[in-house]
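Worked example 2:
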Amino acid sequence: MEFTKGHGTGNDFVLLPDPDGQLDLTPELVAALCDRRRGIGADGVLRVVRAAKHPDSAGLAGEAEWFMDYWNADGSFAEMCGNGARVFVRYLLDNELATPVGAALPLATRAGVVRALVEGDAVSVEMRRPQVYDASTATLGGLTLPGTAVDIGNPHLVCVLPAGVELAALDLTVAPGFDPEVFPAGVNVEFIVAGDPVDATDAHSLMRVYERGSAETLSCGTGACAVGAVALRDAGRDTGVVAVDVPGGRLTVTVTENSCWLSGPAVLVATGEVDLSTLSAAA
């Protein structure tokens, strides 16, 4: 099977070309592909399929030609992935599978249709405006940390670390605890501290994240958008620009009255073929 490997600020993906939806993609195969020792290794799989050819996106085929069929590393589905969408768009353009309509390229996801803009090495995607809707808590290593629930097409819990708790010292080799009544489908948990001012931004946050289905990752695009919304709220603003530094680099989040733009680098690093029989044996 052919594949491409790509990443957005270290959030990495295996992309599988399947334009007509003929690939028998299973949770077991996804998990085997994402295995970093016995497979290719990734935080998730992006199947490149035409919207009209997948049952989850057929209703969006009139708005977007391509559907980002995103799977977490453990073989579960996710509604949306901001970095994945940016890498997906890079793949479409580099392989001449799509041409932006005007200045933007529409892309179907399980969270609806998003738009993408490409400027050099940077790819930006426009998603729904983050909805900050509740307070909750996360537990980690004996700590109970207050947080803010945010919906950006998928669920997030943003926890601002109190004084005396260092971001780098958090042990994210284990999953944080959360309230299943608030997050019945699980949640991505972001831990943040304020950063020094950055030119042309309204706020600056440093972030680490534990993603449901993928564990700690070097970056999370929708998580950065959730963090941006909370940082702006704490600064007394409804809109603005936030720099979000993750272990894999920097993302820029722009929250407008009606949407949220996520911008950063999107890179394709390799193409090749994988022997499915060896993955089956490993799985």
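The chain has four helices and 18 strands. Helices lie at 27-34, 82-94, 221-234, 276-282.
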